[in-house]
Design goal:
This protein is an alpha+beta fold. It folds into 4 domains: 184 residues, 2-Layer Sandwich (Beta-Lactamase); 103 residues, 2-Layer Sandwich (Beta-Lactamase), CATH 3.30.450.20; 77 residues, Orthogonal Bundle (Helix Hairpins); 156 residues, Heat Shock Protein 90 (2-Layer Sandwich), CATH 3.30.565.10. 42% of the residues lie in helices and 22% in strands. It is built from 14 helices and 18 strands. Helix 1 runs antiparallel to helix 2, helix 10 crosses helix 12 and helix 12 packs antiparallel against helix 14. The two termini are 100 Å apart.
Length: 580
């Protein structure tokens, strides 16, 4: 568009039809257009043709707080260069009527209008251009009544614009206003969508960062509804509790299913205390997997409240695996106990050396007396041997002691028979029989005092495995076999000793800690160091110790000790371990 108005319509009777067609085509164009630039130019060009104006301009409403000025947005006419000299219209009466009061202004001769000022558009377009006489301005206003701008047309002739022209331009202005309204609505909607998308993206980013932080800390999350007792566990929390993520399960049912029996009462009491006092919920307890493996968990949570009420309706919280920390804490406590026990034992050992030496001397004198009968001599010899072992044990309790005795050949057949003989009276008292099934010549090289201590401890434990007093006789069976190199890496030869009892067996909760220091099931008569020391001596020899146990009926325990015939050299990365 933008061509001379003299070419817009033919002078014949089809002018009205052409105008109608132009109105319809412009309306369709404006309804489908999404460019403000195109909307304004199309409306301005259509209005120029409909009112047969020579010049046209669209002034965008740019009113500040001081109500002073407007901005030229688009122009139409045969010579667009003339608009380079057009000043911005100021708030004189004529622009004010259209821009602010939203009135149509049609003047047959604007130069004679009392509201005319030199600042009016088209007043003096250029020194060589004829002045504008006919003037028409039509406001463009939104559906809400907001002034969007103004269509202004001019013609050098007087009284060129008719009431019909005014109506046609008003129709175009109305169509332009609807198109601009729709465009602004679309832009606002697009902006709102972009804001929502940005908020969602930020939320996703925040959630992802939170998830990364939870993963880094190995934290699971959970929520609890007090009214229904239902828990909602995320993937990691469900993994830690051996449950399905987001599957409905009550807190009570989950506690009974996975929390260790010893900790169930504690967790229930802790929850009740939290519900009474509020604050932050914290608890540390053990859970058991379906295959019986225990782990330590730490749970913490914050209360959720009913709206405008102090009543606690639930919790949100986290859960974390703290097994490593608990293991380290236990090891530290055990190290402190061992250090304290070592200091005490060293002191006691130092104090008993003198009376021990005196008893040894008395036994020596008794053994050298020719009047002592032979049976008593044998008993004194056994007592002397045991006192020698006590002296060795006492010496080992002295801090940082290293056994300086040389390994010797140990005949396990003789050693096991002598240990059984030592505890024969105790077994007879408890109605326990002991059988030995030993292959001949079971020999190893090692430290005899330590190996003797190993089997003494195991036989004592086998005797104590029977409930006393016993309702029926019990049996202990000791079996020894040679193990040749085909069964071990590196061609090592070894000896396997099994000590089997028909006692009550080891409970499932005690099995994992049976070799831990200071752990005992003998209550006041046990120190909890026997099996810990036994395993230490066996591993020092280069061997292994393991056990199988069963409770119920029948019940019993088998300890198996595997000892190499020769003490192996210190293990390197390429040395295969001895297999039990």
């Amino acid at each position: 568009m933008g061509s001379d108005s003299t070419k817009a319509f033919s002078p014949d009777g089809s002018q009205n039809e052409q105008r109608l067609r132009l109105l319809v085509e412009t309306g369709i164009l404006l309804a489908s257009e999404r460019s403000l630039d195109v909307i304004v130019q199309a409306a301005l060009d259509a209005g120029l043709h409909l009112c047969s104006a020579r010049y046209g301009a669209f002034f965008y409403n740019n009113i500040g707080d001081n109500d002073k000025s407007y901005s030229l947005y688009k122009e139409a006419g045969p010579d667009l260069n003339i608009f380079a000299t057009v000043p911005e219209p100021h708030c004189t009466e004529i622009p004010k009527d259209s821009f602010l009061n939203q009135l149509i202004v049609r003047s047959p001769d604007i130069t004679r209008d009392p509201r005319f000022t030199e600042n009016l558009p088209f007043a003096a377009l250029s020194p060589n251009h004829p002045p504008v006489r006919s003037y028409l301005s039509v406001p463009v206003r939104s559906r809400a009544g907001e002034s969007l701008g103004c269509l202004i047309y001019g013609h050098p002739d007087v009284d060129s614009f008719t009431p019909a022209s005014e109506d046609l331009v008003a129709t175009i202005a109305s169509q332009a206003a609807v198109a601009i309204d729709n465009l602004r609505l679309s832009e606002n909607l697009t902006y709102e969508i972009s804001q929502v998308d940005a908020a969602r993206a930020l939320q996703r980013e925040t959630s992802e960062r939170l998830r990364q932080a939870l993963d880094a800390a190995q934290l699971g999350t959970w929520t609890w509804d007090r009214a229904t007792d239902l828990l909602d566990l995320d993937e990691r929390a469900a993994y830690l509790f051996h449950a399905e993520p987001h599957a409905p399960i009550t807190r009570t049912a989950l506690r009974k299913r996975v929390v260790a029996i010893e900790d169930q009462a504690y967790t229930a009491e802790n929850l009740e205390r939290f519900l009474e006092t509020g604050g932050i919920y914290t608890a540390e307890y053990r859970v058991e997997s379906p295959d019986g493996i225990q782990t330590w968990l730490s749970a913490s949570g914050n209360a959720t409240f009913a709206p405008n009420s102090p009543d606690i309706i639930g919790m949100v919280g986290t859960v974390q695996d703290i097994t490593t920390r608990k293991t380290q804490e236990t090891a530290l406590r055990q190290s402190e106990k061992l250090a304290a026990t070592g200091r005490l034992a060293a002191t006691i050992a130092h104090e008993i050396n003198n009376p021990l030496e005196a008893v040894t001397n008395l036994i020596y004198l008794s053994r050298t007396d020719p009047d002592v009968p032979e049976p008593v001599q044998q008993l004194l010899e056994t007592a002397d041997a045991e006192l020698a072992r006590v002296a060795q044990i006492a010496q080992q309790t002295l801090g940082f002691y290293r056994d300086t005795t040389r390994p010797i050949e140990i005949k396990l057949n003789d050693l096991l028979h002598s240990v059984v003989d030592l505890f024969e009276r105790k077994m007879v008292t408890r109605k326990i029989s002991c059988t030995l099934d030993l292959e001949p010549d079971l020999c190893i090289h090692g430290l005899q005092g330590e190996i003797r201590q190993v089997f003494s401890n195991l036989i004592v434990n086998a005797i104590d495995a029977f409930t006393y007093p016993m309702l029926k006789p019990g049996r202990i069976h000791i079996r020894g076999r040679h193990l040749h190199g085909a069964k071990f890496g590196g061609g090592q030869e070894a000896v396997s000793i099994l000590i089997c009892d028909e006692g009550s067996g080891i409970s499932p909760t005690a099995r994992a800690r049976i070799f831990s220091p200071f752990f005992t099931t003998k209550l006041s008569v046990g120190t909890g160091l026997g099996l810990w020391v036994t395993r230490g001596f066996v591993e020092k020899q280069g061997g292994t110790i393991c056990f199988h146990t069963r409770t119920g009926d029948p019940s019993g325990t088998i300890f198996r000790v595997v000892l190499p015939v020769h003490i192996p050299p210190p293990r390197t990365a390429s040395t295969p371990p001895l297999r039990a």
